[in-house]
# Entry
Amino acid sequence: MRLVVGMSGGSGVIYAIRLLEILKQMKLETHLIITPAARETIVFETDYPVSYVESLASISYRYKDISAAITSGSFPTDGMVVVPCSMKTLSGIAHGYEENLLIRAALVTLKERTAVFHHKMGGTGIRNLKLFLNLFTTYYQAARTGR
# Structure
């Protein structure tokens, strides 16, 4: 199984970390994209360094690398999870605004008709994405502000 995991800047990065830990234990192939805001959230909400989170994935991509293999329909995947998913990322997916690798990979996943899941999202943009699964949860682990 080959799964793309995207982490955008919303609270709940621990869900993505736990998911990556489990997928690694299962020896599944994972391709990880972490947005700059998610990198900050990892630091604020957890005691894990970003390098640890990246090490959980089979391959970790640069956020702006829109020519990465996962942006092509000829690179087959079994789906994509965006956890947590910020409104900005969801809006970009809903409206096809391919400004970064995470959004582009999600759009390719939708185009190829494999599943894209996101975490903690609602709003009007979701109506445009019929292949999304809503997981309405909130999780704060040692959340602290940057101030």
Observations:
- The CA atoms of residues 8 and 38 lie 5 Å apart.
- The longest helix spans residues 13-25.
